[in-house]
Amino acid sequence: MGWWFKTDLWKRVMLGLVLGLAVGLGLRYGMGAEGAKSAATYFKPFGDAFMNLIRMLVVPLIFTTLVAGVLAMGDPKKLGSLGARTIGIYMVTTLFAVTIGLVVGTIIQPGGGYDLSNVASEDIAATKARLEAGGALVERTVFEQLTGTILAIIPPNPVAAMVQGDVLAIIFFAILFGIGVLMSGEAGKPVADFFESASEAVLKLTLMVMETAPFGVFALMAWVMADQGLQVVISMGWMTLALYIACAIHIAITHGGLLKLIGRLPLIPFFRGVTDAQAVAFSTSSSNATLPMTISVAETNLGIRKTVAGSVLPLGATINMDGTALYQGLIALFAAQALGIDISLGMYVTVALMATLVSIGTAGIPSVSLFLATTTLSVVGATPDQMALILTPLFAFDRLLDMMRTVTNITGDLAVASVVAKAEGDLDEDVYREQDNLTAHIDDREKA
Q1: What is the pLDDT of residues 1-57, one digit of tens each?
Q2: Do 106 and 222 contact (CB within 8 A), yes or no?
């Protein structure tokens, strides 16, 4: 079995996908309704166990990773101009990312052909009733919807919020708790050490659970294919197209606009200078694995001094997840379209806010954002069975999706680092513009 663990996880997941696809289609088209029933009886329980493992990790993963991310700043003084400017820009670009994802998802409608309206229809009816009761499908002012969402973020009882899985409240408390630990100085060091260790332990546990993904994907894919057929594959193609288009737009408009309008920096040297980091990000699908290359590119190609590169980029690898936030918004929209649930403006705001905040707690390891997708799906009221039907094909396609998400994440890190360095006087613009000069020199030589 040594070959199994030596094989990349995404390849093993793809093997599980192919086998599950073949078994599920064989049951569906070979046995008809009886085949779908057999798949639900013999495969779905193993898939449910896998989904339970994922949901088990959501609260500890968000809380420990987010607290550790705040603690990564290391010095309360960094919560001053550098920290506030960095975190503020990260939050704004992330919000832009999820907004672009929602717009592209609304236009392309990736979930439109994936009909789940016949799955647990009584649960869908209950979902719509809950949304109506909450004011999502009734007429309320945007201000009322927004203030209601903001008030719901502040947990009167943080422990109860964790028990109930109230993710927005958990995120809010984790950020404040991390700031409190930083401001405690030496007295807070034991707590800081505990959360840094806890974060590492939860990430290791996450990797352990991800080792079960090939088997979970096989079981769930066999069930999904037996129940739904080939329309799943078509829907995933639209989902992939929507993600790549949205990420490309975000990189060009949001990151490009940030550099040009806020940083007053030319775009060509930046995009030439970050290609090495983007290539590593695309191949590894991990912001953390790409971090050494990201820092090297920042200092060598973009002229960002170590004082900024060494603080802004590690923080960005933890809390700046533009691609992840964009994806979370797309998943929620995909689910709503598949379930036939209308989303009002207020629900769009809630989804955008949830996706933005959930992305902050996403660890920089491959495919981990799918572990947090259950929280985003809860916004549209998806039941566990519906979540399984939505997330199963996404697991199979996630490597392809994660590659583009990671490129978007690290491009955002480097764009923000460039702008912050310029504002702090820590950007060597001669180094930054060097590739422009190199290009001009090559052009002159070719003309001669």
Answers
A1: 677 777 776 678 778 878 888 888 888 887 777 777 887 778 888 877 877 787 787
A2: no
What does the alpha-carbon distance between residue 65 and residue 5 come to, in Å, rounded to a whole number?
Answer: 26
The three-state secondary structure class of 207 is helix
Q: DSSP for 350-402?
A: HHHHHHHHHHHT--SSTTTHHHHHHHHHGGGT--HHHHHHHHHHHHHHHHHHH
Q: Is 302 in contact with 270 (CB distance < 8 Å)? A: yes
Tokens of 429: 């613009």
d(CA 69, CA 65): 6
The answer to whether residues 51 and 250 touch, using CB atoms and an 8 Å cutoff, is no
Q: Which amino acid is at 148?
A: G
Where do the domains of the chain lie?
7-447
Which candidate, 400, 11, 408, places its Cα nearest to that of 241? 400
Query: What span, in angstroms and rounded, lies between the C-alpha atoms of 172 and 251?
Result: 28
Give the residue from 274, 277, 303, 305 showing the smallest Cα distance to 290.
Answer: 277
Is 225:20 a contact under the CB 8 Å cutoff? yes
φ, ψ dihedrals at 397, nearest 5°: -95, 0
Q: Is 196 exposed, middle or buried (0-12, 13-18, 19+ CB in 10 A)?
A: middle
3-state secondary structure of 74: coil
Other beta carbons within 10 Å of 438: 12
Query: Cα–Cα distance between 210 and 13 in angstroms, integer?
Result: 10
CATH architecture entry for 7-447? Orthogonal Bundle (1.10)
CA separation for the pair 121, 125 (Å, rounded): 6
CA–CA gap between residue 56 and residue 51 (Å, rounded): 9
| Alpha-carbon span 35 to 38, nearest angstrom | 5
Query: Would you call 426 helix, strand, or coil by DSSP?
Result: coil
DSSP 258: I
Q: What is the pLDDT of residues 164-173, one digit of tens each?
A: 776 667 777 8
What does the block give as tokens for 43?
């495969």
pLDDT tens track for 365-411: 555 566 666 666 766 667 666 776 777 667 666 767 887 888 898 89
